[in-house]
Structures are given as C-alpha cells and as structure tokens.
Automatic annotation (TrEMBL):
SUPFAM superfamilies: Bacterial luciferase-like
Protein's UniProt name: LLM class flavin-dependent oxidoreductase
InterPro entries found in the cross-reference section: Luciferase-like_dom, Luciferase-like_sf, SsuD_RutA_monooxygenase
Luciferase-like domain sequence ranges: 1-119
Annotated Pfam families: Bac_luciferase (PF00296)
Domain of life, source organism: Bacteria
GO biological process: alkanesulfonate catabolic process
Keyword Flavoprotein listed: yes
GO molecular function: alkanesulfonate monooxygenase activity
UniProt keyword Phosphoprotein, yes or no: no
Length: 150
C-alpha cells in the first residue's frame, strides 16, 4: 500500500491531471493545484529489512531513530539495498535522530560522529530530558549549537 501511494504522490506532484488505478487506490481525474515546483523528497524510517528495501527502492532518504552504532549498522543494510536497486548512495539522505543523547555534549558528539560517518542530517529531541520550561529547552538547543560550532 505504501509503495503504491509513493508512486501516486509523485504522479500527482508532476502531472496536471491524474487518473490512477492501483491495487489499493483508485483516483479519477484528480489534480493538485498549484503543483509543487520540484519533486518533494520522500524519506522513510523503520527498523526492519522491508523498510530498508522500500526506502532504497522508492525513497530519497532514511531517518534512523536508533543509537549511533545501530544507525551505522542499519545504514550498511540500506546501502546494500541501494546497490541492488542500481541506485547511488551518494545522493541518498540519511538522518539520525539522536534520542540516546541526554546532554548537549552527548548530542553534539553524536551528531559530529554521524556527520563523520557520512550522515547528511541529524536532530536531537529535547523531550524527556527533564527540561521543564521553554527557556530550558532553548538553552539546551543553544548549548548543542555552541558545541557543534567549536
């Protein structure tokens, strides 16, 4: 179902009028107006080989929500599926959500290591860090940024 809908979205984004008959979806003369000026990247996430294969076949990137080490291991699996699909890993985005980093120092270190590994995007959540005010969350983000700028 997901694979079919990715193709349908891309068709809607690129064609002025779409009629579509798939296994799961049927669309009769639909359009999006205005259409996007460029193709919208579709990134996938997940933890299993089917998710990695689907992303490699259809996606523009993958979002990992695991430890840095697990994300690196899983990236090698995505890379294998990209190769099997005849696609280059060079143009394929890879983001790490650094959930396991509990301090600004850990978040910055994880993000630097991910970048050095070849990661193209990274983020860190401020939830579940004991931050009870908006100001505390902003200060946390600012400290991560300071550490990344060093």
């Amino acid at each position: 179902r997901l694979s079919e809908q990715v193709g349908l979205l891309r068709q809607l984004w690129s064609e002025p009028l779409v009629t579509f008959q798939g296994e799961f979806d049927r669309i009769d003369r639909a359009c999006i107006n205005p259409r996007p000026r460029r193709m919208i990247p579709i990134w996938f996430g997940g933890f299993t080989d089917p998710a990695f294969r689907r992303a490699a076949k259809l996606g523009d990137g993958f979002i990992f929500t695991a430890s840095l080490e697990k994300a690196q291991e899983d990236w090698t699996r995505v890379e294998k599926y990209l190769s099997q699909a005849g696609r280059s890993a060079a143009d394929f985005g890879r983001e790490l959500i650094a959930r396991e980093a509990n301090t600004p120092a850990e978040a910055a270190d994880t993000m630097k290591r991910w970048r050095d590994f070849g990661g193209t995007h990274a983020c860190f959540p401020t939830m579940r860090k004991g931050l009870t005010t908006i100001e505390a969350q902003i200060d946390y983000i600012a400290e991560v940024r300071r550490r990344l700028d060093r």
